[in-house]
Amino acid sequence: MSNRPDADDGTELLYQGDWLRLVRHGKWESCERTHGRDGLAVLVIAVTPADEVLFVEQYRMPLGARTIEMPAGLVGDDHDDDSLEEAARRELIEETGWSPGRVDVLLTGPTSAGMSNERIAFARARDLTRVGDGGGVADEDITVHAIPRSEAAAWLMRKHAEGFELDLKLWAGLWMIEFNPDGSPAG
Q: Cβ distance 73 to 42 under 8 Å?
């Protein structure tokens, strides 16, 4: 289905909201994003000059809980000419207060292929410089955590034990700090 709710491709529109729509293709129901570029989001893997991994904490209404994630956001949301690199740079600055000197897009793929058209691009941010406090925009209420890389996985598991929801993409992000998606060392 195209981003037009009236597309003539055999898709039935079940519900149209401000940010999402529910559609049916035959017997298959799925959710589609209506903002950004074709359901594309970017997740930013960032390590500070002090070798700290940047995580963000925020309340997520669909889960009814606080989550720990890596900085992320929609590509093209309010920025029609957004590239993946520009979206990664913008989201990292907005959410964490760190600006990257370089952004490398590593891999793009679906987040939940059986339910949604959303795809996410993993981007590695390098050469970070502190430019602000972060915290997100509007009512995002983001808390930034800079955790020593050597302690990151254990810290995440402590947060999980405290009741936080953990985005499972965190472990892929931690792996991609040191490796490229093909297993070669990060350069």
A: yes
- Structure tokens belonging to residue 155: 């810290």
Q: What digits encode the pLDDT tens for the residues 129-166? A: 999 999 988 888 899 999 999 999 999 999 999 999 99
Please state the φ and ψ torsions of residue 50, each to the nearest 5 degrees: -90, 15
DSSP 47: B
- Under 8 Å CB-to-CB from 157, ≥6 apart: which residues? none
Phi/psi at 173 (5° precision): -60, -45
Give me the domains of the chain, ranges plus CATH numbers. Answer: 1-34 (no CATH), 40-178 (3.90.79.10)
The torsion angles phi and psi of 63, rounded to 5 degrees, stand at: -95, -20
